[in-house]
Amino acid sequence: MVWAPESLPDAGRRGGPEADGGPPDHVSITDVAELTSLEVLRLMRSGPRGLLEAHAEDRLLRYGENAVAPRSPASWLRRLARSLRDPFAMVLLCLGLVSAAIASWGTACVVLVLVVVSCVLRSGGEHRADRSVAALRELVATTATVRRRADETAAPVSREIPVDHLVPGDVIGLGPGDLVPADVRLLRSSGLTVHQAALTGESHPVAKHAVDVPADAETDLFDRPYLCFHGSSVASGSGFAVVVATGAGTRFAGAHRGGMRERGPSSFDRSVNGISWLLIRFMLLIPPVVLLTNAALRGRGLEALPFAIAVAVGLTPEMLPVIVTTALARGSAVLARSHGVIVKRLPALHDLGAVHVLFTDKTGTLTQDLPILDCSLDPDGRPDPDVLRWAAVNSLWTLQLADLPNPDALDEAILDAAERLGGTLPASDGVAALPFDPVRRSSCAVVQSPDRTAVHTLVVKGAAEDVLDRCTLVRTGGTEVELDAAARGRIRRLAEEKAAEGLRLLAVGLADRPARPGSYGPGDEHDLTFLGFVGLRDTLTPHAEDALAVLAGRGVAVKVLTGDHPGTAARACRDLGLDPGTVVVADHIDGLTDAAVAELAMRSTVVARCTSEHKARIVRALRAAGHTTGFLGDGVNDLPALRAADVGICPSDAVDVTRQTADVVLASKDLTAIDHAIMAGRRSTGNIVTYLRIVLSSNLGNVIAMLGAGLLLPFLPMLPAQVLVQNLCFDAAQLAFAFDRPDPAVLRRPSRLRPRDLTRFIAAFGPLNALADLATFAVLASAVPWSAQVTGQSAFHSGWFVENLLTQGVAILVLRGRRHVPLPLGIAVCFLVIVGVLLPLSPLAPLLGMTTLPFAYYLLVAIVVLLYGVVLRAANAFFERRHADRP
Ligand SMILES: Nc1ncnc2c1ncn2[C@@H]1O[C@H](COP(=O)(O)OP(=O)(O)OP(=O)(O)O)[C@@H](O)[C@H]1O
Ligand SMILES: [Mg+2]
């Protein structure tokens, strides 16, 4: 500790209401790099007791909000322009341009209408989705702990404020998991390490500590131990700091002008893109094929071009982006409303539905994180309250000196137990503290007894193996003896025994050192004397057992990655009905290849003694092996794994940086909520898959029939305008798919958009649809006396138009499977039937080149449609049976 709070002048105390107008404009972290802490505080017109609330308000007006790029919602125009960049819109536009170029104005107009309608629908849908996602994100917005005073005489109060409201000169507290909210100069610190990967690319946490007078000016700004930067996060330890630059004035904003780096495309984005590009290639192929075949077989020239274009337009699933956005946005809105689960990135909802390996940590998910002391044992396993007392000394001083914003549950439990035990703690004053760090797996307090001022006592408590490794002596029966291999073995076995009872074990070690000024570091934790263990019992989460069973039934394998002892983790799993098998200890995987890690992880259920890197490595290895993974965690040590997983999930009370990183935030850390989220994901994906199957297969069927008919007939089988109107009707009806309820069978297994499955389906059902069309030809041939005359042609056109709309309606009903039809879909099908039957009878018919059809035709077409429905149902059932077991 280099800075005593009361030893500095307090600018806020002297100055009147911001008489000096706050710090100069545009102070950056570079300007203060060489100043002493005192000079920095003076420059920022602040003091250790923080700003006055009134001054802070003035400064907020003057310096603006602390936001890197003030987030203004994208304007309507910009959204429209962006939706034009969609590949389908592009292809349609090209087709429109070609139509205009050959003066086929009707086609050009309809294509234009299609583009405008789909862009408006899409940007409208995206706007709504963005707004609700933004509103949901607000709910998980991060806060900063700021120290401020109500007026000159009031004592400083630490409170949480939205990060946006921080101003230069604010004094803030930092703790594990906090995002560093601005560029700051440290005033005080304790065991502080920060992740600066976003700024420097360095993946390991770097140590930071306050210094009064900066030493060497040579080092890079990011390497200075007394400066912390916006964009980094606290890995361990704590500190107090004064804000130097906020918002656009930070280094992070400077490095990321033009927007934050977004994550690369997710598995969902890749699937959708894959499907889109497949279709686009196909669409671009159609016009030349139609033209060439027509020219070769029918001797038609460029006059067939509008028809060729219309056929290509007919194949385009213009509504695909609209349906995808709407289905996902609806799913996540329902999820937020009914289960408090917030999906921060829409595609993450699809990925949730696809998860089939769910990793979780132990504490808080399987157990409640409300530990209670169970025992305090000497190295031979005999009860010894002294061990608890020393553990309490460690807890007391780490909590007091390390300014941790959220006290650790284990430390609190130890202090409670020591209080209940009565008696006094070994007399001590705190000298320094190294708070718990998940890599060291220990915490250390340095204390001094009033009657032995020449001695500093290091009190270390932490994971059994890690503390034991740092001990060279053991205290038994009041005497200290050397800790030989036999004694080590005995102590290890004792630890295993106790862990197998489900206890969380902490070992305690001590060392006396000559008192010295200056700070202590992890390097000082050596040559300790082993005192014994404290064991804490954590109760199991009540609904975890049922939730685990439900998840297993849904094809989701739950695996536990924990930093705890293998025995403790295995016991918790067993008590919850989850067979732990052989527990892997994380050190094991260090020497393995990624493929071997994936294989091992798939075979086992629990990996214990994981560091955060181990957790991330296991997740990455499984992803690389083709598994879709979810990770549920709430600690700083879960961060890399949350990033590595397809879907990162955390509870809403997790540390800030975790909530920022996660894709999905749960109201509480609860496996039941995850189950709801997974089901919502499967539902949305199920709707998208049904839509794609039906639309693409009937579009393909139409194209095949159109090509075939074009060659069989002496005239065009449909006029371009008719193809386009029919396409508009299909599009309108298909919007209802976003509101469908998928087949319960789809919900039983992880669901994913698989381009290959889709191709298989389309390849089977496209030709079937074409067959129905060909049957219609036969009907038309018998019922309508068509030949080359104009009235005969328009009768053919009308007849086919009617049949197409009706078969589309049947396809929608049948290919969904045997289940209840929700209202929007019912309306869509009725719409198709009504338009199909009435359009040729309406006054619009002559405009579109259609005529009234004889009654007999309707009867015959009804039979064809009915037969089509029956065949389709049988084929669908056959297809489902054949492909049901594919993963
Ligand atoms: N406050 C503490 N003081 C000392 N040691 C601790 C403290 N908290 C945890 N430990 C030790 O560090 C080990 C790892 O704990 P940590 O909380 O990092 O694991 P984790 O991966 O978050 O576990 P979980 O899966 O239970 O969330 C614990 O088993 C314990 O031995
Ligand atoms: Mg944890």
From TrEMBL:
Residues 1-26 are annotated as: Disordered. It is found in: Cell inner membrane. Its main location: membrane. It is an enzyme of class 7 (translocase). The keyword Translocase applies. It catalyses: ATP + H2O = ADP + phosphate + H(+); Mg(2+)(out) + ATP + H2O = Mg(2+)(in) + ADP + phosphate + H(+). Keywords: ATP-binding, Cell inner membrane, Cell membrane, Magnesium, Membrane, Nucleotide-binding, Phosphoprotein, Translocase, Transmembrane, Transmembrane helix. Belongs to the cation transport ATPase (P-type) (TC 3.A.3) family. Type IIIB subfamily. PANTHER family: CALCIUM-TRANSPORTING ATPASE (PTHR42861). The keyword Kinase does not apply. The chain crosses the membrane at residues 88-121, 271-292, 304-329, 761-783, 795-815, 822-843, 855-879. It is a multi-pass membrane protein. Residues 31-104 form the Cation-transporting P-type ATPase N-terminal domain. SMART domains: Cation_ATPase_N. This is Magnesium-transporting ATPase, P-type 1. Its EC number is 7.2.2.14. Pfam families: Cation_ATPase (PF13246), Cation_ATPase_C (PF00689), Cation_ATPase_N (PF00690), E1-E2_ATPase (PF00122). It comes from Microtetraspora glauca. Mediates magnesium influx to the cytosol.
